[in-house]
Amino acid sequence: MEITRRGFLQGAIGLAGAGMTGALTVPALKSLLPPPITRCNKDDAHDTLTFKSEGGKWYENKGNEVATVADFENIWDVAIVNWGPENLEEELGACEIQLALARVPTETGMEGLGVSVGDGSSMLMAYHTYKCPHLCCKPVYTEQGTSAISGKDYENMFLCPCHLSLFDPISIIKNIDEQGREVMAAELLEGPAPYGLPVVPVAEQNGGLIGLTTEIEWLKYCGQG
Ligand code: FES
After folding, report:
1. Pair 59, 72: CB distance under 8 Å
2. Are strands 78-84 and 97-105 parallel, antiparallel or unpaired?
3. Domain coordinates of the chain in residue numbers?
């Protein structure tokens, strides 16, 4: 069938009209859509690092209290703390996650990531023990042990129970994650993890400790982008 000039123009006018209608109706429709479904109650959100209730630990009587520098009296006091900033669900899909908060000897590489204690010879640092960068298990602080991989003895490390990756909390180095992003992490010493255990920057606010979301991208793995 021959396309006449008149038919073409009529078609073009029709399409333009449809486009204008679309331009007018899409924003209007959007305003009618319900807000995205969220599971997290915004009233429960907290940047503060609060002690997890855990029997048998040195912080067992501090459950749900905001952690302070003074709580960590000794180097290698390590506690599991809850962290649930407002945008965590949007970023990581969880309302609240757990981190390991530790007082560790100060080393280069920790600048801007931790809170200095006393004369500056130790720092409070938070580690993303919520998920190992290998296959998402939860590394645990281990005071001392012998590596089942190398047979070497070690002290004060994070050990992943699933495939025995070992991370050094005082060696904070720049890693490149599987997406090509730079991540500051506790160095991977051995095991199958692709790189180190990311840290979460912490700061002091109103006398308590908070986790910062400035580097939330460092925590996006295990299917989170
Ligand atoms: S999940 Fe941690 S080493 Fe495999």
Report:
1. no
2. antiparallel
3. 1-33, 42-219
Is the CB of 159 inside a 6 Å radius of any atom of ligand 1?
no
Q: Give residue 28's pLDDT.
A: 65
The residue type at 3: I
Q: Give the tens place of pLDDT for each residue, 113-146.
A: 999 999 999 999 999 999 999 999 999 999 999 9
Does CATH place domain 42-219 in 2.102.10.10? Answer: yes
Fill in the DSSP letter of residue 2: -
Instruction: Let me know: does 46 contact 81? Beta carbons within 8 Å.
Output: no
The C-alpha atoms of residue 97 and residue 115 are separated, in whole angstroms, by: 20
Chain position carrying tokens 């051995």: 190
Q: Where in 21-96 does DSSP place strands (E)?
A: 46-51, 78-84
Residue 102: exposure state from Cβ atoms within 10 A (0-12, 13-18, ≥19) = buried
Ligand 1 contact, 137 CB (< 6 A):
yes
Q: How far is the CA of 109 from the centre of ligand 1 (A)?
A: 24
Q: The tokens of 21 are what?
A: 């209608």
Q: Residue 35, class by beta-carbon neighbours within 10 Å (0-12 exposed, 13-18 middle, 19+ buried)?
A: exposed
Which pLDDT score, from 0 to 100, does residue 9 have? 41
**pLDDT tens, residue by residue, 146-185:** 999 999 999 999 999 999 999 999 999 999 999 999 999 9
The Cα 213–Cα 204 span in angstroms is 14
From 131, 137, 167, mutation site for ligand 1 pocket: most ligand atoms within 8 A of C-beta: 137
